[in-house]
Amino acid sequence: MERLLAVSSSPHIHAAQDTRAVMGWVLIALAPAGAAGVYFLGLRALAVMAVCVVFSVLAEYVWQKGMKQQSTSGDLSAAVTGLLLAYNLPPTIPFWMAAVGSLFAIIVVKQFFGGIGFNIVNPALAGRAMMLTSWPVAMTTWTIDGVSGATPLALIKGGSAELPALCDVFIGNIGGCIGETSAIALLIGFAILLAKKIVSWHIPVVYVATVAALSAVLGRPAGPVYEIFCGGLMLGAIFMATDYTTSPMTRKGQVLFALGCGLLTTLIRTFGGYPEGVSYSILIMNLTVPLIDKLLRPRVFGEVKKHG
Amino acid sequence: MKLPTFWGGTHPPQKKEFTADKKIEQYLPLGDLVFPMAQNLGAPCKPVVKKGDAVLAGQKLGDTEAFVSAPVLSSVSGTVKEIGLKLTSSGILEESVVVENDGRYELDPSWQPLPDYEQIDPKEYVKRIRDAGIVGFGGATFPTAVKLSPPPDKAIKWVLVNAVECEPYLTCDDRLMREDPEKIVGGLRLMLRLFPDAKGVIAIENNKPEAIEIMQKTAAPYADRISVQPLAVKYPQGAEKMVIEAVTKQEYPVTALPADVGCIVLNTRTTHQIWQAIAEGKPVLTRIITVTGEAVAEPKNLEMPLGTSVRELVDFCGGFKEQPVKILSGGPMMGVTIKSIDIPVVKSTSGILALTAKTACMAAETPCIRCGRCVEACPVGLQPQLMNAFALLRDYAAFEENFGMNCIECGSCSYVCPAHRFLTPSFRDGKQTIMAMRRKAATK
Lengths: 308, 444
Ligand code: SF4
Ligand code: SF4
Fold this sequence. Notes:
- The complex is a heterodimer of chains A (308) and B (444).
- With 308 residues, chain A is an all-alpha fold.
- Chain A has a single domain (19-295), classed as Orthogonal Bundle (Ammonium transporter fold).
- Chain A contains 14 helices and no strands.
- Among the domains of chain B are: 16-20 and 111-279, 3-Layer(aba) Sandwich (Rossmann fold); 373-443, no CATH class.
- In chain B, the strands form 4 sheets. In chain B, strands 1-14-13-17-15-16 form a 6-stranded mixed β-sheet. Chain B has a 4-stranded antiparallel β-sheet with strand order 2-8-7-4, with no helix packed on it. A 4-stranded parallel β-sheet of chain B has the order 11-10-9-12, with helices on both faces.
- By secondary structure, chain B is of the alpha/beta class.
- Chains A and B meet through helix 1 of A and strand 15, strand 16, helix 12 and helix 13 of B.
- The structure holds iron/sulfur cluster (2 copies).
- One iron/sulfur cluster binds at residues 368-374, 384-385, 416-419, 421, 423 of chain B.
């Protein structure tokens, strides 16, 4: 019987959390925000989520079958991308647009670059950016049942004096994209990610703190506290900027990356044409990741720095 | 209080509870004893006996003139039955001397304590340590006498007893400290005579409170030179570089040795054996190992003569209660798989670990998701995901540029990788290939 012993190279044991488990926990952490989205924005939000997830997973499966690659759709990463895309869409978005956005995110942004681990920008955000360029009206229509749900940031941009109350913004009783409406639900998700050690605190905390600090310095009208709880900042900082593939490897790099995201977000919110700047900030910072990784490598034991 | 430790690392499950409370039992072999000639890092030995020779315990079976070497001694008295190729833990057939045990365990009378060992010139210790066949019992089997002969310009300021035992499952060093602490402290005292300017530190991971307490008590009379240092529980705290970092706060480049930062690091059992060889006239005859794992019916800590068949030890532990899928010589993080249990216990055997399908990771590789866990875990500050890509591309220049040669093969990165990348194995291969290329370039 001992002839059947496996021969292999060490180590021989393994931490329990595999890629699928990691992605599974991300999905669980995303659930509270999704529930809040459905509660405040209606059942249509649920339908949008379903469309995005189904099309993302199917797109990955069919692409890999077609390319005769080993299928990775069991790792749940496509489901995460689909759900994140849905969270960045208004609940009123036509379903076919949501489907096209999902296909774009998975096939063009993820698979064209080599699949999981190789894409250079966040697929969900790139999908959203493509949709915003292609269908700007549909992507910024927040009207539900005839009630205008203009987002607080759009109101700030428009110079409106009547902003929703801070507590409504915090709980989620405001207009906006499906996943970004409730800051508290997103924070619960953050707690889950931290507890399961899926992400570290560095990117979300530094990102949000930078936005708060800069909003105060630049004298944004609603004040720093209001700024950080509205719009996609919590969603972006907790779930988008922390995407493994498109964020730096080291803690030092992550802090620099988050500072950059925070800076760009506030600048776009203040000076840009769009009311919201989270997606573009993260996409731009995604592109700097290879550089950051090169500059801020870990210090090697006992070796003096070779290049300064 | 925060205990000293190193940067990075990981926390595999300890699994020491199987054997932590089991006393070291003596096991006497039933069958023949097999002594492979290659049992240390460096040059292998050549047999110095012939078939049919009568041998005593402690008598040389093999030796060599090479500097980096240690002789192989018979662990029992009996007759040389055969000299030939035998399967060893390395998985290949190696030249070995087989001794038929006469069951009397008669020690060669020339083995006596070094007279006046507390007074003599400590240089004599080094010769005795070589003759006794002592090597680093932590697993690397570097000949101890060579380690104790650093170039004279290196001022040795620390003699560290590495009693960390950070590999999961293994408990033999823990038991040895709890059962025979005087000889460990004794061995360290002798080494402090050899290095008169050095402090002695016994470094123990904080998951062994009994051992820490008993070592502190035993070392108390020598408090002016010897201290016990508890270290944080983290893998690979027992790696030589990590113990030195934790205790002395020093680092050194890949081209340097511990002696370059004033350190000599000795394993627990090695220190114990140094005392036995010098003060008791007892050379390396036995090995103390942990036989454990989910598949073993009754895991135990055992002391047995070198050359004992692993199969006998497994039988003595009640055999397998479950089908093992992997059997290791050593611990789960750095041990090597063995093809068969019909192999002898050698100087490098620190444990026999039988893993079941549930515990041994057999998962397939999936693509790297750039999660950064390997970077967080690497105690040397490497970027395993990058090195892995270069190793697989066979881009050895880039592998070296990214400090691939600094990898200590601790397995932390592979352990944490959610994509189950075979990181450490790819580094082991990469390093070996580069070493081979360097050797080839040197001989040209
Ligand atoms: S731990 Fe594995 S998946 Fe994560 S970055 Fe390292 S190699 Fe990639
Ligand atoms: S095996 Fe090598 S690369 Fe991996 S953690 Fe250990 S030292 Fe670092």
